[in-house]
Write a structure and sequence with these properties.
By secondary structure, the protein is mainly α. The two termini are about 20 Å apart. Helix content is about 70%, strand content about 0%.
Length: about 150
């Protein structure tokens, strides 16, 4: 099995396990609190949906190189076996740019009528932008592996 090269973020490498757990769990608890608050407040489609925006930010940060490296430090068996599975900052930036383009297209094609629709556009754009990045990396990685075997 080939060794993958991970460009470790300095502060992730220096954190203790307790600090890493608090970095990983703290934002998840905040998103959960916002979700519960959203449900208890009546979930009006005309009010700002802070849960959706916090979830989109948490999702984007969790799949950043630093977020993935926190995962690798907390769960050593999660370290990828192929280089194309390791995210770098340029790939993450490309995923964010794809998300912004998808958000702009969604807002142009389906103009939002209320805050609830804006939140749906934001969440969908972020998820689809990152799925597009992973799919592209997966496709290129599989293609490179096949060509190296020839």
């Amino acid at each position: 099995m080939a060794q993958v090269k991970i460009d470790w973020v300095d502060w992730v490498k220096k954190c203790s396990k307790k600090q890493l757990w608090s970095i990983a769990i703290g934002p998840a608890i905040l998103v959960l609190i916002l979700f519960i608050w959203r449900i208890k407040s009546g979930s009006s489609e005309y009010e700002t949906n802070w849960f959706a925006y916090a979830l989109a930010i948490y999702y984007a940060l969790a799949f950043s190189p630093a977020g993935e490296q926190i995962q690798y430090r907390l769960f050593p068996k999660a370290v990828p076996h192929n280089q194309y599975q390791v995210t770098n900052w340029s790939q993450w930036t490309q995923a964010l740019m794809a998300s912004v383009v998808l958000l702009i297209l969604a807002l142009l094609i389906w103009p939002p009528q209320n805050q609830g629709e804006i939140a749906v556009h934001v969440i969908s754009a972020v998820v689809l932008g990152f799925v597009a990045m992973w799919s592209w990396r997966w496709f290129n990685g599989i293609k490179a592996q096949r060509q190296s075997k020839k």
